[in-house]
């Protein structure tokens, strides 16, 4: 359909390309999205990660950029590590919630200098193993990892074979669970839910039936308000105990979450860049928006509007 | 959807090998008797021997690091890939801006007028309604982004496909050389080759478009070649006798004569590109696919459906319109040009008027929120069906039983087989149904999986595929028989099948998890939903095409309806049924992999892991294994002398 128009448009585009780039080198660090700046609008692209907390950051930033600063904001869903690469190429302008990727940071921030640090998000993340609080109340000793084997049979599912099931989430997440299960000699099978959406759906189904479950999970997370969960204490984290991930026997660290911008955008992104550098809120703020998106099923935009209307004192500080 | 089969040139086979199953099996048995003790004593039975694996982790990791470190500086990227990437971006952007400039009124009017010229008033109305529905669902901009992406991808696929098709259509040698390449491209599950494209081009539109081209170009190439070869020799002779040069013959006779095939090729290319537009959202393609994917992130089925419906509508409209164009390809008239001009002028007027009235953008108030009611419905369903249903048990119990009674034994059984016996079984099946070449390809593909060192997870995936195919065939053939025997059932099924076939899988992954829990069972269910329509269609079509004379004579001999079905129709439709099996297998494989996102583990999870962590070694090896699995399964189930295409 509309073959004729598109043909002529693409012929025009192709000849423009021939003229523009015919002999020069293409700059792989300036590869903006084709949908950016359409119709003369000031626009920028934010990367969204698949978990709801990241969607909340982006929703509020997007709402303020659009309504207070007059930008048009595109969003693209990308996992963290590919997002670093996309930042470097200029396909997205910002990554608002990074859970610490030293290797990427070294490559792009220090060596290539195509990505730059843009301050903390104000939220501290922590990964751990969790059981539902209703189960922890019945069996208080479950909160120590040493007792996990005692309960393995209660955590059994069709997928875990004869062992207990510990459910891990998206392949994008930082996890050492397979090594932990092996090194701590736990009678458990790591079952990968494959996506956070699948994991949340399954947790809710378990909770509805008050069934016991053991899951890799993290804070801040809105789901705690719907399904209260209690952390199982793993051997404490010490600096450097996670360097050799195959031999790991300690818990996950607490990670202050950070923001990163495309380096060019950070330099010449004007008000948008200045705003994103100042953007900083708390775990409670983020959860408030997340809950509206994930539980009340508000669109991210409506949720952001509600939060923005309710907390002007917080975001006024971020404006350039 | 469109016709599913592409009748290919029949291969000439040595008569000796053609129809002697016993001889083939005997040959294999002799080979086995000699080889197996040797292999067994050297490497043992059970799992694939470690000595026969090659670890690619090191070299692939190095390659990926090299690309990452040199992408901004190395000439290969600066002067070659960079320009390709820029060209794609410019093209997509050009189309996107043009669509935005037309505004929603202009685009809708243009769509309707084109549909009217090509396919009549009914489809024109349907097209207009479809576009308005996209707007009403609040998806106007994403729909335009997807359209822009599609136009670029389809143009590129058509260009590549026509070039390959010309080569194959004009030269026998190139035809022979290209055929296996195209075959292979068609059985590769798309998910498997996202990673290499991303490595070179990075996340985003160029990678998405190029991955789409790999996926969507083969039907165009195949049909172009078919059209060129099928041109009426008498017409060509006449043209030659008029003294036309080869180039003139090509341009004035052969290509116009192949118009029908070319349009059918365009139709199939469009459909495949559209289905890829969603999968490509995993690598940042944007548009509707990205909306579906983002909705998946917040476990919001309603929002995913709101973005999924425009995809279904686009697919149905594009399919019907290009399909009608193909059927109408014969009557061409000069007077129609005026009507085309009229249509274009109408569009321009509508667009300008809308712009002057300030209505270029979709009115933000005029959107329909379907997310909420849909989520309510889904919640109700999962709350009531998940468990505790009297007598039959809840869906969660079914899933657990299916896993324990079907998936586990199948997986454990496959893994318990000695590695060489798996190769032997593959060889025997492929040889029985095909030629020694297909048997060799299938066996080598299976062996390659072992060499790559992913024998175990591949057998896991294989067990899921087999279970899903079994379910699909039982349901699909039964439904197909019903559809073939009753026009009413057929009519009622058609829209349902359209939706099943075009709805992006991401939309139903979450309800499936909510019903069947995390694990392999939901992946199997999702695969069955996706592969069912093709099996139903091919079965119904095959049964309907059974020679009426044969049926009539059976009836006159007093055969009952059941006897007619079992003794006449089904045996005579054997070829179609085999094709249905083949399609079922290929389609199931494509989706079981996406099941990695809902806990199916195995190869699908590894590919997703590779994409998410930028871990090329894991992702690429798993991707390659999927490709080998696809090749093997295709060869093992592929009816001889008949080529098939993936999806629709």
From TrEMBL, chain A:
Keywords: Signal
CDD domains the record matches: PBP2_BCP_2
Signal peptide span: 1-25
UniProt cross-references to Gene3D superfamilies, sorted A to Z: Glycine betaine-binding periplasmic protein, domain 2 (3.40.190.100), Periplasmic binding protein-like II (3.40.190.10)
Domain of life: Bacteria
Domain ABC-type glycine betaine transport system substrate-binding: 43-309
An example Gene Ontology molecular-function term: transmembrane transporter activity
Key word Metal-binding present: no
Pfam families: OpuAC
One GO cellular component term: ATP-binding cassette (ABC) transporter complex
UniProt protein name: Glycine/betaine ABC transporter substrate-binding protein
Source organism of this protein record: Streptomyces seoulensis
Lineage per the UniProt record: Bacteria, Bacillati, Actinomycetota, Actinomycetes, Kitasatosporales
Automatic annotation (TrEMBL), chain B:
SUPFAM superfamilies for this protein: MetI-like
Gene Ontology CC annotation, any one: ATP-binding cassette (ABC) transporter complex
An example Gene Ontology molecular-function term: carnitine transmembrane transporter activity
Pfam families associated with the record: BPD_transp_1 (PF00528)
This protein's UniProt keywords: Cell membrane, Membrane, Transmembrane, Transmembrane helix, Transport
InterPro entries in alphabetical order: MetI-like (IPR000515), MetI-like_sf (IPR035906)
Lipid bilayer topology: Multi-pass membrane protein
Stretches assigned to the ABC transmembrane type-1 domain: 143-322, 458-637
PROSITE patterns: ABC_TM1 (PS50928)
Cell compartment(s), UniProt: Cell membrane; Membrane
Keyword Mitochondrion appears in the UniProt entry: no
Coiled-coil ranges from the UniProt annotation: none
Domain of life: Bacteria
Family in the record: Belongs to the binding-protein-dependent transport system permease family.
Protein's name in the database: ABC transporter permease subunit
């Amino acid at each position: 359909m509309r073959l004729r128009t598109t043909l002529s448009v693409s012929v025009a585009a192709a000849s423009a390309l021939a003229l523009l780039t015919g002999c020069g080198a293409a700059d792989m660090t300036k590869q903006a999205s084709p949908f950016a700046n359409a119709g003369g609008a000031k626009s920028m692209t934010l990367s969204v990660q698949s978990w709801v907390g990241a969607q909340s950051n982006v929703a509020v930033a997007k709402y303020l950029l659009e309504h207070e600063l007059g930008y048009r904001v595109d969003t693209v869903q990308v996992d963290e590590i590919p997002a670093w690469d996309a930042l470097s190429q200029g396909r997205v302008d910002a990554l608002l919630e990074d859970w610490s990727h030293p290797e990427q940071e070294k490559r792009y921030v220090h060596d290539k200098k195509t990505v730059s640090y843009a301050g903390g998000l104000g939220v501290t993340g922590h990964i751990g193993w969790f059981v539902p609080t209703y189960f922890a109340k019945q069996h208080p000793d479950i909160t120590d990892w040493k007792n996990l084997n005692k309960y393995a049979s209660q955590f059994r599912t069709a997928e875990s074979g004869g062992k207990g099931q510990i459910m891990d989430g998206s392949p994008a997440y930082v996890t050492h669970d397979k090594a932990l299960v092996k090194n701590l000699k736990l009678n458990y099978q790591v079952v990968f839910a494959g996506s956070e959406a699948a994991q949340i759906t399954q947790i809710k189904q378990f909770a509805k039936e008050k069934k016991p479950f053991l899951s890799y999970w993290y804070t801040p997370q809105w789901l705690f308000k719907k399904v209260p969960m209690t952390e199982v204490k793993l051997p404490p984290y010490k600096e450097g105990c996670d360097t050799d991930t195959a031999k790991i026997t300690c818990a996950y660290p607490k990670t202050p979450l950070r923001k990163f911008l495309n380096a060019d955008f950070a330099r010449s992104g004007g008000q948008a860049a200045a705003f994103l550098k100042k953007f900083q809120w708390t775990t409670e703020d983020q959860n408030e928006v997340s809950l509206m998106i994930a539980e009340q099923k508000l669109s991210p935009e409506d949720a952001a509007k509600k939060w923005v209307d309710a907390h002007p004192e917080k975001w006024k500080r971020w404006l350039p | 959807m469109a016709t599913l089969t592409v009748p290919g040139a029949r291969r000439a086979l040595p008569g000796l090998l053609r129809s002697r199953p016993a001889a083939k099996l005997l040959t294999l048995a002799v080979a086995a008797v000699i080889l197996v003790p040797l292999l067994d004593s050297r490497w043992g039975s059970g799992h694939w021997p470690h000595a026969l694996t090659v670890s690619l982790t090191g070299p692939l990791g190095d390659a990926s690091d090299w690309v990452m470190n040199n992408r901004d500086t190395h000439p290969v990227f600066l002067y070659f890939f960079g320009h390709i990437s820029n060209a794609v971006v410019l093209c997509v952007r050009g189309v996107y801006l043009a669509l935005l400039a037309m505004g929603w009124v202009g685009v809708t009017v243009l769509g309707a007028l084109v549909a009217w010229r090509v396919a009549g008033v009914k489809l024109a109305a349907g097209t207009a309604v479809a576009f308005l529905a996209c707007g009403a669902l609040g998806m106007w901009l994403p729909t335009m982004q997807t359209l822009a992406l599609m136009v670029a991808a389809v143009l590129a696929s058509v260009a590549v496909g026509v070039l390959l098709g010309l080569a194959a259509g004009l030269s026998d040698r190139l035809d022979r050389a290209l055929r296996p390449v195209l075959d292979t491209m068609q059985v590769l599950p798309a998910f498997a080759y996202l990673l290499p494209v991303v490595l070179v081009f990075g996340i985003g539109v160029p990678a998405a478009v190029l991955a789409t081209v790999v996926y969507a170009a083969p039907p165009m190439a195949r049909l172009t070649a078919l059209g060129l070869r099928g041109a009426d020799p008498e017409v060509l002779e006449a043209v030659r006798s008029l003294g036309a040069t080869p180039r003139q013959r090509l341009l004035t006779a052969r290509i116009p004569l192949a118009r029908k095939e070319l349009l059918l090729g365009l139709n199939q290319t469009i459909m495949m590109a559209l289905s890829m537009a969603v999968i490509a959202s995993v690598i940042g393609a944007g548009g509707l696919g990205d909306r579906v994917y983002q909705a998946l992130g917040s476990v919001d089925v309603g929002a995913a459906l709101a973005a999924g419906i425009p995809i279904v509508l686009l697919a149905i409209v594009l399919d019907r319109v290009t399909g009608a164009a193909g059927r109408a390809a014969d009557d061409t008239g000069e007077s129609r040009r005026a009507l085309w001009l009229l249509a274009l002028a109408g569009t321009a007027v509508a667009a300008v008027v809308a712009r002057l009235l300030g209505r270029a953008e979709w009115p933000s108030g005029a959107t329909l929120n379907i997310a909420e009611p849909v989520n309510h419905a889904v919640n109700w369903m999962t709350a009531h069906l998940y468990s505790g249903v009297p007598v039959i048990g809840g869906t969660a119990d079914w899933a657990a039983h299916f896993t324990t009674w079907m998936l586990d034994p199948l997986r454990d059984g496959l893994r318990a087989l000695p590695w060489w016996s798996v190769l032997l079984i593959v060889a025997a099946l492929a040889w029985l149904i095909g030629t020694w070449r297909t048997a060799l390809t299938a066996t080598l593909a299976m062996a390659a999986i072992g060499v790559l060192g992913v024998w175990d997870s591949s057998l896991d995936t294989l067990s899921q595929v087999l279970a899903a195919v079994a379910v699909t065939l039982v349901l699909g053939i039964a439904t197909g028989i019903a559809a073939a025997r009753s026009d009413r059932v057929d009519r009622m099924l058609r829209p349902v099948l359209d939706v099943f076939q075009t709805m992006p899988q991401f939309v139903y992954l979450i309800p499936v998890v909510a019903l069947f829990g995390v694990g392999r069972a939901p992946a199997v269910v999702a695969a069955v939903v996706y592969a069912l329509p093709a099996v139903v269609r091919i079965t119904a079509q095959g049964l309907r095409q059974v020679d009426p004379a044969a049926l009539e004579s059976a009836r006159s001999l007093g055969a009952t309806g059941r006897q007619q079905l079992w003794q006449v129709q089904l045996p005579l439709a054997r070829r179609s049924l085999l094709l249905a099996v083949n399609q079922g297998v290929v389609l199931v494989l494509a989706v079981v992999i996406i099941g990695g996102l809902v806990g199916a583990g195995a190869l699908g999870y590894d590919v997703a892991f590779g994409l998410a962590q930028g871990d090329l070694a894991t992702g690429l090896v798993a991707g390659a294994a999927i490709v080998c699995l696809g090749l093997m399964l295709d060869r093992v189930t592929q009816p001889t002398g008949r080529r098939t295409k993936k999806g629709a």
